[in-house]
Amino acid sequence: MEDHIVSALAAGQQIRAFGCTSRELVEEARSLHNTSPVMSAALGRTLTAAAMMGSMMKGDKDILTIQIKSAGPAKGITVTADSKANVKGYAIDPGVVIPAKPNGKLDVSGAVGPGTLRVIKDLGLKEPYVGEVDLQTGEIAEDITYYFAASEQIPSSVGLGVRMNRDNTVRRAGGFIIQLMPDASDDDISVIENNLKGLKSVTEMLDSGMTPEDILSEVLKGLDVRFNDRYDTAYKCDCSEERVERALISLGEKEIAALIKENKDAEIHCDFCEKDYIFGPDRLKEILKKSRALQGG
Ligand code: ZN
């Protein structure tokens, strides 16, 4: 099943819902960053949430960032998504190894630990929208649920899951976000609560062959689900030599001249795709010229 997101409305538009399968993109993140199993899960859950949250945005250039800063061994996770559900992200320490929980599950909350979750939405306005909450459990889904309630005042239910193969590649990944609109009735809410009680984990459902549509149909059973859209989601880093060059140019003359004086290559690393860009002294001299031209003009 290729990575994709489906969106739906239920209970006469009083509930909106997103479902996602994201194995390919989480596996891409795992292989790029060589994440340990618990960090594949932590980063994968965050990427999956961001993909769905990104697709909620309307503008072509809108960017959503989820920033987790934490006191646990993972130290932090940064993920960004655009409105076409292209995502990228990294963990500060991708190699965390800690014992599994007593039930055998990866201890994501143990790796993440206490901290804060910040959501930054750049919607092309003067100031980006920023909402920050304390991490509730460090399991990511509960933290995003709390973020929606506390920061956006939208009662939500979020499920996220990543299951690994024995060889530490990603077996399944996916999730759902259910949101109540202001006129959702108490009856509708209790139907969802009941459905959630009997619900298997996201990865169990995906493992049994269920699609994101099937998962949403299960969560919203009895609430007249209507599917709207289906779109692809993928891991995509948009860094390029041109972008890095522009970043170097914007450092300004003084900084660039200092780099040239050292007579060393300038190495710029992309945290999102682990690519290294190397600019030798000749290239830096060109960049210095461009920077001068920019400042002069
Ligand atoms: Zn990159």
CATH architecture group name of the largest domain: 3-Layer(bab) Sandwich
Number of strands: 13
Indicate the low-confidence ranges by residue numbers. Answer: none
Number of domains: 2
* Helix vs. strand class: alpha+beta
How would you name the CATH homologous superfamily of the largest domain? Hsp33 domain
Gist?
With 297 residues, the protein is of the alpha+beta class.
Give a quick set of tags describing it:
CBS domain Like, five-stranded antiparallel sheet, 297 residues, Hsp33 domain, binds zinc ion, 2 domains, six-stranded mixed sheet, alpha+beta, 10 helices
Tell me what you see in this structure.
With 297 residues, the chain is an alpha+beta fold. It folds into two domains: 4-235, Hsp33 domain (3-Layer(bab) Sandwich), CATH 3.55.30; 241-294, CBS domain Like (Alpha-Beta Complex). It has helices at 23-33, 37-55, 108-112, 141-151, 186-197, 202-207, 212-219, 241-249, 253-262, 281-296; strands at 4-10, 15-21, 63-70, 76-82, 86-91, 115-122, 129-134, 156-164, 170-180, 226-232, 234-235, 266-269, 276-279. The strands form three sheets. Strands 7-6-3-4-5-11 form a six-stranded mixed sheet, with helices on one face. The protein has a five-stranded antiparallel sheet with strand order 8-9-2-1-10, with helices on both faces. Strand 6 (115-122) and strand 7 form a beta hairpin. The longest helix has 19 residues, at 37-55. It is globular and about 70 Å long. The site of zinc ion (ZN) has 6 residues, from loops.
